[in-house]
Amino acid sequence: MSRPPPERVLDARYLEPPGPFVQTMEMLDTLAPGEQMLLLLYREPHPLYRVLQQNGHRWSVELQPDGTFEILITC
């Protein structure tokens, strides 16, 4: 699947919890409506999905061959 390039990328693959969640929320606060960010993780962040849904954000997930979850989040 071909995606448009995101405005921001957060590579949180090597951060310990709650770092990925905190940094994701901080970055989301800087995005304008319609902007996107790409979150890279080695695990699927199910608690984050609930928060994104509650705040009206959309997201899609692609699992890469190296085990990276690419989560494209749209404000």
Summary keywords:
75 residues, alpha+beta, Translation Initiation Factor IF3, four-stranded mixed beta sheet, globular
- So how many helices? 2
CATH class: Alpha Beta
Q: How many strands?
A: 4
List segments where confidence is low: pLDDT < 50 over at least 5 consecutive residues: none
Sketch the major β-sheet: 4 strands, mixed
CATH architecture: 2-Layer Sandwich
Helix and strand sequence: EHEHEE
Q: Specify the helix fraction band.
A: 25-40%
The CATH homologous superfamily corresponds to TusA-like domain
Mean pLDDT: 93
Task: Tell me what you see in this structure.
- With 75 residues, this protein is α+β, with helices and mostly antiparallel strands.
- It is built from two helices and four strands; from the N terminus they run βαβαββ.
- It has one domain: Translation Initiation Factor IF3 (2-Layer Sandwich).
- The chain has helices at 19-28, 46-54; strands spanning 8-11, 36-41, 58-63, 69-74.
- Helix 1 (19-28) links the parallel strand 1 and strand 2.
